[in-house]
Amino acid sequence: MREYSSWWRSGWRPRGVDAGLVVLTLCAPLLMQSSADVSARAWWLLAGCEVVVAVVLPLRRRLPVAVFLVITSALVTGVVWGAAVGVRLSLLVYLSLAVALHSVGSYCTSRPRTWLAVLGGGAVVAVGSWINHMTAFSAEYQGSSDVFAVLAPMPLAWATGFAARIHRANLAATERRVEDVLGEQRLREQQAAQQERVRIAREMHDVVAHSLTLLVVRAETLRARGGELPEWARTETDGLALAGRQAGGELRDLLRVLRGPDDAAPLRPMPGLGDLPDLLDRSRAAGARVDARIEAEADALPRPVQLTVYRIVQESLTNARRHAPGAPVRVTVAEEAGRLRCEVVNPRPAEPAPAGWGTGLGLVSMRERVDTLGGELRAGPTGEGGFQVVATLPLSPMTRDAAGV
Question: What kind and span of H or E run contains 59?
């Protein structure tokens, strides 16, 4: 659709406008000539002027000054010649001059060329008026006040063209600013998504490192009771403990790569579903009204799922405080048909939010986390003017088993 719009603007639309102007400027004088002069000379003279207009007027966008000077010269020549032989042309023949002046104001961006058009056109009119007084068929064909009465409104045509050019320039500048803002927003979203992926990788590393530690501890426990095991079991247990320690070392090396210089904090347990009550209490202490319903066993859920739910609730409560201060927040975490559903919803804010808060990047972070686990995230306004975040995360048997490692 965008390609079609661009093709229409750059191709057929300008050509259609030019064709319509040519038809208008040609037909109007032909229709009104019978009320001015019906002689054969008048018709032939009008036809000559019309031919010149039809040839040069379609070039008004590329050569506005040249088109204006050519049309002005053609009209002055036709009118002066007609006056010399006693032929009068329709006043609507000057319509093409108004179109040419409009084109000068609309498409001529060079000030020297604009002055060239003004001085050149004025000189042609002045010379034509002098010749007209010298060669007119009779006194009634000598143009004087009637000529200036026709030419007086012509600067208005140039002014409307100039206003159209300024409008186009402002519109183009606005479109560029909008594109810049959208581009900057897309860049921020990409950077936020990338940062969130790195953060997820770090946290997943911590979760996996915790599970590997448990694995190594259990393997070492089996080694301590090696006398009760057959020889092949002791060998496999030693290999299991060695593989766990190697994997843990590789994960620590990976963590040093993922963590930046400002994020080199010691490892600590990642927050999970059991930490939600403390998070809710801190929000209530900050003045938020939070109603929570948690219907899921933390010990039975995979650590990555718990971590994702914690981050979603944390980000949603932060957004609610920013965008809906004073509004109550309802948090629901429940297990439904092998999936964990996390919902955070708030009604219309009781008081207006401070201007300029939020960039929308928190939703990007939440979506990255949910997509990592193959879940689904829906976030948006409700019908009553509030906001709702709903995340649904799958709970496969494999991830349940991993939770109890």
Answer: none
How many angstroms from the chain centroid is the CA of residue 309?
A: 31
SS3 358: coil
For residue 392, the cross-strand partners are 341, 376
Question: What does the pLDDT read at residue 259?
Answer: 56
Residue 200 has phi, psi (to 5 degrees) of -65, -40
Residue type for position 117: A
Per the structure block, which two tokens stand in for 362? 């928190």
Q: How far apart are CA 114 and CA 120, in angstroms?
A: 10
Residue by residue, DSSP assigns 102-128 as: HHHHHH---HHHHHHHHHHHHHHHHHH
Q: 3-class SS at 55? A: helix
Sheet-wide strand order for 339-346: 290-295, 329-336, 339-346, 387-394, 376-381
DSSP letters, 47-87, are HHHHHHHHHHGGGTTT-HHHHHHHHHHHHHHHHHHHHHTT-
- Taking the alpha carbons at both ends of the chain, their separation in whole angstroms is 54
Measured between alpha carbons, how far is 285 from 337 in angstroms, rounded to an integer? 34
* Residues 69 and 124 sit within 8 Å (Cβ to Cβ): yes
275, 310 in Cβ contact below 8 A?
yes
Please give the share of the chain, as a percent, with pLDDT higher than 70: 71
pLDDT in tens, 38-50: 788 888 888 888 8
pTM over 0.70: no
Token output for 35: 């009320």
Amino acid present at 257: V
